[in-house]
Amino acid sequence: MKNYFNILRRCPLFEGISDSDLLPMMSCVGGSVRKIGKRENIFSEGERAQSVGILLSGKAQIVRVDYYGNRSIMESIAPTDLFGESFACGGLREIPVDVVATEDSEVLLMDCARITRSCSNACNFHQQLIFNLMKVMASKNLRFHQKIEITSKRTTREKLMTYLLLQAKNNRSNSFDIPYDRQELADYLEVDRSGLSAEISKLRREGVLESEKNHFTLLEEAE
Does the N-terminal or the C-terminal CB of the chain have fewer CB atoms within 10 Å? Predict the structure, then answer.
């Protein structure tokens, strides 16, 4: 577990927790590391919602597939990111989405019940861990509302520009990378890929933006 301390130190769940407490904390919350292959599920829809995960390496996505097979990307997951906490802490019996590794990945899985309930050992880090978990969930809730703001727009152009402007704001730059390829971006925005590609081409011709693969630059006309 010590091999992952550099990642764990940067995870917001462990903010304010000393290195000397990390190992005993892993025992307290039932922490275990798993290796996940590309395109394999970390969590699958219908599984019991009981674990909280942290991505240690690789990349992953939270994906929802509706009754008709339409795929929507809810969120991308990068190293140090937490996932699964809303389902496990919310008391859901089953996970309503898939969490899929998009690269070979390593994940740390912890028992949510052992995080949220103070243990019999009265660990001095446990209250800090619970407080950090609440902060992470509040931040995730804000991002969820941002996605609603994006996907509630009427047209593909409005959805795309709302997303890109938010990315520019978050990156504090008009030039930035996004964590999606074209199909994944279409799935995140909940639009047709061909329509999205056509809209990006149109915006480039209009001088609103420049793009190369997953790198975008918003020009003055977009502001």
Answer: C
